[in-house]
Write the structure tokens for this entry.
Amino acid sequence: MKLARRTFLKFSGLAAGSSLLFGPENAFAYSAEKNTKQTSMLIDTTRCIGCQACERACSERNSLIAPVGEPSVSTARVTDDAHYTVVNAFQTDKGTVFCKTQCMHCDQPACVSACLVNAMYKTKEGPVIWKEDKCMGCRYCMLACPFDVPKFEYGSINPRVMKCIFCYKQLVNGTKPACVQACPQEAIQMGRRDVLLAAARKRIYDNPNQYIEHIYGETEVGGTNMLYLSGVPFEQLGFKTDLGTIPYPEHTKTFLYSVPLVLLLGPTFMAGIRWSTRDRGEGSHH
């Protein structure tokens, strides 16, 4: 029986040592690091006039359906497979306020960590893009996103996952995203994340009566590449304010770490049981 225990412990020790190969740093297809130099957008809702120029420019560049109708406080629109960005109107403490929404391009995207084949991908420049040739259609990215952004083309014979990709192809060639170029009020600005954060803080400091003291996206879910300024609490503009500051992939790190560990320890544990049972059976004959 002692031999059986020693053998079992030996197997367990080997398993524990081997499990170091599957540490948390290897649990994700994408391992994000805080990068203040990533390309980001700063959206100032106090400057938005609801003209929808950003929507029309987005639909034209991406061959999508152009927006129909004007923003109304009675109707809250959401992004879908035919509209990467939408402008809504909200009735707030300071009257009607307009706000553009789209993919938040998280620093540590939940959609990327949920993708089994790395079809959803965080680029070094900052944008989160989707690779059609890799996608297997599982739609886990849709379930994982805390902002409910990725949408599936259910009506297509060759469905895709659709969302804002920050006009990535144009971006790497030096062209600004369509929505940035189209905005007549400069309510949307593009630049390095650290530079935009500094500019946003300065606006708040210089105009304390115009802005609330919060930059949405600076810390939400670990930080996003879409940053917002507002003159009213963000919940009045339909933003989720209960997401916390921990990146969503961190919530699942323990589980993802345990998957390869279970696959490794399971056979080892069963082998240990077999050794223990065999020794006990052999000993019963003496």
About this structure: Confidence is low (pLDDT under 50) at residues 1-33. Strands lie at 39-44, 86-92, 95-101, 120-122, 128-130, 151-152, 161-162, 188-192, 226-229. DSSP finds eight helices and nine strands in the chain. Residues 248-283 form the longest helix (36 residues).
